[in-house]
Amino acid sequence: MFRLLLTFCLFCAAVHLCAEDLDKMRAERVGWARLKTPSEYWFRHSKSDPVLAHFIRDNTTLNIDATWYVADVEKLDEMCAYPLLFSQAIDMIQSETGKRNLAEYVRRGGFLLIDACCNRPINPDIDLFLARQIALLHEILPDSRVIPLPNDHEVYRCFFEISGGPPHTYWGNRFDISRAKHGLYAVQLGNRTIGIISLGGLQCGWDRMAAPRGHDVLCMRMVVNIYIYAMLQGGN
């Protein structure tokens, strides 16, 4: 289903390439898409998604649109237009069509990035949030496994070097300790990683919520690494 964009993945540490060189290396055009679910918060922070898209384009050879798109979980054809779908959460998907589509999407080679927003009214209990995502995944993909990734995993060094685990969002200018105990989680189906669960609120970071200077860049670097890692997974 998806033609892998690996020509952009091996991009010679693009930090030393000029804009003209990057444009010559760009692969086919892709878009950054959010998964539309029944949750009223599915598009939260989306106003800053173009910032993320520009960052990806400026730092890699990925020919990504400088906007964001919507992929409705009820419409498999919309979902399958994107090799990676970003989701605020998937546990709100209750319709049988939505569940079938999500399972079929990953079976065809799609990749899910599930990122918990740091807003406490949305996710007051981060451990419960994780449990709900895992429960839905096990329901629609009984053979799937969710495993914690060590801080030296390749996802932290496949493009940018990120040390100490994933960045975690600050709440009210204070480091959120409840999230700091969690690293990234991989969702595996057979021998393939089909998704990443982040509990740090990466989207809160690139939306420049209260956090130290440079935290937004660190969060976007983490997303770049996850995107590249996702593309390297290939099919089944």
Q: What can be said about this structure in brief?
A:
With about 240 residues, this protein is an alpha/beta fold. It contains eight helices and nine strands.
What does this structure look like?
With 236 residues, the protein is an alpha/beta fold. The protein is 32% helix and 19% strand. The strands form two sheets. It has a seven-stranded mixed sheet with strand order 2-1-3-4-9-8-5. The chain has a two-stranded antiparallel ribbon with strand order 6-7. Strand 8 (185-189) and strand 9 (192-198) form a beta hairpin. The radius of gyration is 17 Å and the shape is globular.
Quaternary structure classification: single chain
What is the terminal separation in angstroms? 11 Å
Task: Tell me the major beta sheet.
Answer: 7 strands, mixed
Report mean pLDDT, rounded to a whole number. 85
The DSSP helix count reads: 8
Strand content: 15-25%
How many beta-strand elements? 9
Helix share of residues? 25-40%
Strand order of the largest sheet: 2-1-3-4-9-8-5
- Structural class designation: alpha/beta
- The low-confidence parts are 2-27
Tell me the radius of gyration: 17 Å
Q: Which outline best applies?
A: globular
Which helices and strands, and how do they pair?
Layout: H1 19-25, E1 30-36, H2 49-59, E2 64-72, H3 76-79, E3 84-87, H4 96-107, E4 111-115, H5 126-140, E5 144-148, E6 170-171, E7 174-175, H6 177-180, E8 185-189, E9 192-198, H7 202-206, H8 215-231
Parallel strand pairs: 1-2, 1-3, 3-4, 4-9
Antiparallel strand pairs: 5-8, 6-7, 8-9
